[in-house]
Specification:
- With 154 residues, this protein is of the alpha+beta class.
- The protein has two domains: 34 residues; 102 residues, Immunoglobulin-like.
- Helix content is 21%, strand content 37%.
- The protein contains one helix and seven strands.
- A four-stranded antiparallel β-sheet has the order 4-3-6-7, with no helix packed on it. The protein has a three-stranded antiparallel β-sheet with strand order 1-2-5, with no helix packed on it.
- The chain starts with a helix and ends with a strand.
């Protein structure tokens, strides 16, 4: 009887310890991810500066201007980081119809993401008001820098 009680108590203690360890890891992971600016949880612009320029990749209208359906990329630099990222957002008739982010540096692991085609399932035709902005990740979150207005024609 006594052995069964000791085994039962030991098993419960192990399970309780595992539960506490899982909760501690969950809190630590949640805190680590809370500092990242990914997805929709971007922090407000806080001034990382830098230079930002539009580069045409595929200019369907051959007019040198960004138009619906064209593909663009950006040159981006900032003295704050060797790994600047750019977020491009486009608004049409007051609605956000396009968002795309990519690292604009040579060793970015997904280089095909650096080319941004100006269309989406929510943006099927017409012009839009777009804004590109430099950002980078730091230990304290996302730091936002230079903005560039990118009017997109029809």
């Amino acid at each position: 009887m006594r052995i069964r009680s000791v085994v039962s108590h030991s098993g419960q203690a192990v399970l309780e310890g595992a539960l506490i360890a899982t909760m501690v890891v969950g809190v630590m992971a949640g805190t680590a991810f809370a500092g990242k600016g990914g997805g929709g949880g971007h922090s407000k612009p806080s001034g990382g500066g830098g230079t930002l320029a539009l580069v045409m990749v595929a200019d369907a209208g051959a007019d040198g201007a960004a138009n619906f359906g064209d593909t663009v990329t950006f040159t981006a630099s900032t003295s704050a980081t060797p790994e600047p990222h750019v977020r491009l957002q486009c608004v049409q008739n007051g609605l956000l119809v396009y968002t795309h982010e990519a690292g604009m540096y040579a060793t970015y692991p997904w280089p095909w993401e650096q080319n941004m085609t100006l269309s989406s399932s929510a943006w099927t035709a017409g012009g839009a008001d777009c804004t590109a902005q430099i950002f980078y990740y730091s230990g304290s979150g996302t730091v936002w820098g230079t903005k560039l207005s990118v009017p997109v024609g029809v």
